[in-house]
Amino acid sequence: MARRRMIYEGKAKILYEGPEPGTIVQYFKDDTTAFDATKKEVIEGKGVLNNRLSEHFMTGLNGIGIPTHFIKRLNMREQLVYAVEIIPLEVVIRNVAAGSMSKRLGVEEGTPLPRPIIEYYYKDDALHDPIVSEEHIFAFQWASPQELDEIIQLSMRVNDFLSGVMHGIGVKLVDFKIEFGRRFDNDFSRIVLADEISPDSCRLWDVETGRKLDKDVFRRDLGSLTDAYTELATRLGVMPRKSSTGTGPKLVK
Ligand code: UDP
Hints:
Phosphorylase Kinase, domain 1; 2 domains; 6 helices
């Protein structure tokens, strides 16, 4: 098979040229990084889980009319997506104080927020993704006021959808990060949800026990990351629950 042209390799994914113009193949790696990639590990199976989980969330969002780049899953590690021009912002939506916000503002982790808070970080590894305000976004033309308006509206809808899905499986959506892109159609462009939605970019806490089902398991050395992601995938019905009796071949004596 002819080798596909690689367009970009990131920390957790590789993008290849897609089969049709305007499409891209998004490949999910097992590479896991945290703290500006100073902590790194290859966690076998993580890419497969994130491919399935992101497909699940993106399909659900498409289903309620939120435009995303997702077209279809191709295989265990790859999905076909529309090519978009990525807006260089990490959009973080928070329902409960945690992580960098708790540190920055001295708010205890786990404190519920009176309303969802949206934050923007400028995507630049060399600058360590600094937090920015709307003023910076407009001044440096990373997005227009109309585009940011659209991003805010869509982010709040994604938050409502994901919070509801998680509530249904006994999980609290504490916070998450999403990215948006411009999808061009002749002379027009429209804002669509891009990148991925997976436990790599969310904080998810079990409602009953507080158990973390997200990348903090890796960041904070809390056990097996794939066990946590598999638990989430199983509750969502994305992966079958492992049968304790086993369904493999039986030894015939
Ligand atoms: N996040 C992410 N990529 C980043 C930074 C943050 O996906 O480069 C996610 C993170 O998993 C969490 C949310 O965004 O769900 C908020 O992260 P926070 O700002 O608290 O930073 P962190 O504590 O992860 O450094």
